[in-house]
């Protein structure tokens, strides 16, 4: 099966590339928030207990790894401290409004490949091979490959910031995902709004909540592909548009992080009084994150946390 690109910023960048059509783009985004776009294509979804296994490809610091692991570990927290609308778990709960109900996420295996076993330029087929390093066939699991800032991947920074798809092993299909660190390759494309955009007005970027533009950008794209994996794991779940390039739960709400968002403006978000960092969700260990809006199938809106 062909990989499914993450298009969480594509419409936004098109708006930058063609400034004269910005009002039309705004109208399209407004319509997006009012119309039920995601059609169910009768395929299986990932629900219940899901294990996310991680393959770290390249060099990541322990701090970088902890930012991402803490995000994943925050998705299914249910303690009183996470009942706030500004919690990571509240953001994830929107996936439970799709057919089949809620899913809980736990972090499973973590594989370190710091010696670049397949080199520093990867094809999609190699991403799938790396994903299988975390194993397969044991319950509901998603193997996620995370590539460091010095690793190039086919299509990275040109048409995608992350991918999710599936790998066939014998007669079974297993979901996988990939997200790259764009810090040195295309932060204006894959780490917006923490970096000035490639196109359009060069407005000041937001301050990354964990002080790492590349990794905070990875969280946005990981959130995008993970939500897409849950509602469309095998290319026949919930999506709009062509199956080879679908709009899914988060990519259907491109560029929206808070109320009042429009192309080039992420919307109203919270700002840390001490660091000046922008965020809209809090997770374990007091971690702050900026998470994209997700399509709510019950209200037919792009739901934001702020």
TrEMBL record:
It comes from the Eukaryota. Transmembrane segments: none annotated. It is found in: Secreted, Extracellular space, Apoplast. The keyword Cell cycle does not apply. Its main location: secreted. The keyword Lyase does not apply. Keywords: Apoplast, Secreted, Signal. Residues 1-23 form the signal peptide. Belongs to the EXORDIUM family. This is Protein EXORDIUM-like 2. It comes from Hibiscus sabdariffa (roselle).
């Amino acid at each position: 099966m062909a990989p499914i690109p993450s298009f969480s910023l594509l419409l936004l960048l098109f708006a930058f590339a063609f400034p004269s059509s910005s009002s039309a783009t705004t109208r399209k985004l407004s319509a997006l928030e009012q119309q039920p776009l995601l059609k169910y294509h009768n395929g299986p979804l990932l629900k219940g207990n899901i294990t996310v296994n991680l393959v770290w490809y390249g060099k990541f610091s322990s701090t970088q790894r902890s930012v991402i692991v803490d995000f994943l570990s925050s998705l299914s927290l249910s303690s009183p401290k996470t009942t706030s609308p500004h919690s990571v778990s509240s953001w994830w709960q929107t996936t439970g409004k799709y057919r089949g109900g809620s899913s809980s996420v736990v972090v499973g295996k973590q594989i370190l490949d710091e010696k670049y076993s397949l080199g520093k330029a990867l094809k999609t087929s190699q991403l799938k091979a790396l994903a299988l390093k975390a194993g397969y066939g044991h319950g509901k699991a998603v193997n996620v490959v995370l590539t460091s800032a010095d690793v190039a991947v086919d299509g990275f920074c040109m048409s995608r910031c992350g991918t999710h798809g599936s790998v066939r092993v014998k007669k079974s299909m297993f979901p996988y995902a990939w997200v790259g660190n764009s810090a040195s390759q295309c932060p204006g494309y894959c780490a917006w709004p923490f970096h000035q955009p490639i196109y359009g007005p060069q407005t000041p970027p937001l301050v990354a909540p964990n002080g790492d533009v590349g990794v905070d950008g990875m969280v946005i794209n990981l959130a995008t592909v993970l939500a897409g994996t849950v509602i469309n794991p095998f290319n026949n779940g919930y999506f709009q548009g062509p199956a080879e390039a679908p709009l899914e739960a988060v990519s259907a709400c491109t560029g929206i992080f808070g109320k009042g968002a429009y192309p080039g403006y992420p919307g109203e978000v919270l700002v840390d009084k001490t660091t000046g960092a922008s965020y809209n969700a809090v997770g374990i260990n007091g971690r702050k994150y900026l998470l994209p809006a997700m399509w709510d199938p019950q209200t037919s809106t792009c739901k934001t946390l702020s």
